Amino acid sequence: MTIVLVAAIVLALAVSAWIVLSAGRTNGPDFTLMLRELLVARAEGKITADEFEERQAALHSAVLTPTPEHKADVRLWGIPVFILVSAGVYAWLASSDASKTDTGMPPLPAQKSLASSVPWNMQTAPVVSAEPKPVGGDLTALSRRLSEKLAKDPNNGDGWLLLARSYREIRQFKEAEEAFSKAAKLLPADAALFADWADVYVMSHDRKWDAKANDLVAQALKVDPKHLKALALAGSAAFDTGDYKKAATFFKRMKAAAPVDSMEAKEAAANLAESEARLGGSKTKAEN
To answer: Rounded to whole angstroms, what are the CA distances from 236 to 16, 140, 254?
Structure first.
C-alpha cells in the first residue's frame, strides 16, 4: 500500500470522524484516537518520518482546514507537537460540545498517549516555516477555552491531561504542573503522564530535582520500565546530582529500549558515553 493511498484512507476516516463530532454522534471513527495512534506508530518505528508527515498532514487538514494552503516544514525528527496538541484541543472541544458524556478521548495504555510518543528531547514546538498565523491555531486561546470547559466539568481527566500538555507547549509550566496533578487523580496510572508531570515540575522549580520530581519519574518507570522519556529523565536527574554510575545505568536501559538507529537511541548513546567519561574521571581523581 503506497503512502499516498494510506494518506487518502486516513483523510477519509478523519473527515468521517469530524462529521461525527460536529453532528453530535459518537458511533464513528475517533479522530483524536487516530491522531494518538499515528504518534504511537511513529514512535515505535512502524512508519518512517515521511509517512508520518503525510498522514499527520492529512489528519490535520481534515480537522482544522479542509483545504489547507500551507504545510509546515518540520525537522526530520521534529514531530510537530504544537500542531498535534492544538488539533487534540480542537477535537476535545468539539466532542465536548457535541456530547456531555463522551469526550472522544478514551485513555490508552502506558506510552500510547499524545506526549509519550514524542522523542524525550523534543519538548518544545518544532521549527516551522514562517506563516501569517500558526498552522495549529492560537494554542494560548485554545488552552483558555479548554480551561473554561473544565471549570464546568472538573472531573474530566482526559480534559485535564490535554490542558496540561497544552500549557507545557506554551511553556506555562506551573499551570501545566497543576493540570497534570488533577489529571493524575482522575485517570489510571500512566507512564507518559508521570514523565510529563515530572518534566514540567522540574521546569517550574528552576530546573532543580527534588524528592517529588524523582518520585514522579519512579512512578512512571513502575508503570512502564522501558518508557523512554522516563528513563531519560531518570538519567538526567542522576547526572545532575553527580551520580554518574546511576546515570549510566538509566541511559543503558534507554538505549536498549529505543528502536535501533533511532534518534532516542543515539541520544541515549551520547549521554551514556558522557556519563561513563565523567565516571572514569571521578575514579581517576579518587585514585590520585
So the answer is: 43, 29, 12
Which spans in 134-210 are helix H? 139-152, 157-169, 173-186, 191-204
What does residue 266 show for φ and ψ, rounded to 5 degrees? Answer: -70, -40
Residue 244 lies in a domain: no
Q: Which three cell numbers stand for residue 266?
A: 543515539
Q: Can you tell me the distance from the alpha carbon of 48 to that of 67, in angstroms, rounded to the nearest whole number? A: 25
- Total of domains in the chain: 1
Q: Which is more confident, 288 or 183?
A: 183
Please tell me the distance from the alpha carbon of residue 55 to that of residue 278, in angstroms, as a whole number: 42
Residues near 206 by Cβ (< 8 Å), separated by ≥ 6?
Answer: none
Q: Tell if the pTM clears 0.90, that is, is over it.
A: no
pLDDT digits (tens, 9 = 90+) for 117-162: 333 443 333 233 333 343 334 678 878 888 898 999 999 998 898 8
Residue 247 lies inside a defined structural domain of this protein: no
User: What are the CA-CA distances from residue 180 to residues 39, 82, 112 (Å)?
Assistant: 20, 18, 16
